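Researcher: Sequence of GreA/GreB family elongation factor follows. Predict its structure.
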Amino acid sequence: MSVAFRRDSDEEVLEPKFEMPIAPGPNLVTARGLRLLGEKVIEVEAAVAAATDDGARDELKRTLRYWHTRQTTAELAPVPAEGLIGIGSRVTVRMNKAERVIHIVGGDEADPAAGLIGFQAPLPQALIGAEVGERVEFNGVADAIEILAIEHQGD
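Model: Prediction complete. Tokens:
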């Protein structure tokens, strides 16, 4: 067999590992989100220290670089003005004849199943700056969402 068709090792065909993607724009977080970022960094640092396999350790270091970047670029979102929706607001809305409560948070803190929606998502973007009683456009539908209540979370 010709040397040109022989492979010396599997290392030659491994796909390159890219850094984890970072969302564009500012890394605005709530006070809770800032605390969670710190906890995540500590958790991953401990996992890196405990890793015995080189491949697993390299993957954990990649994850740690992501969380370090998110932690160092985090900016505490300003507290919204009284009566206005902003990052950190817990909002009760009526949409499609159903009431829904969402909490607008930073991107890394988002968990849509738990009602924690990142501020960059379309729904929070439609709500930010609105106040109780106001109806806002969403998905091209005028008055699609009615703001029923706003709470500003301290944490």
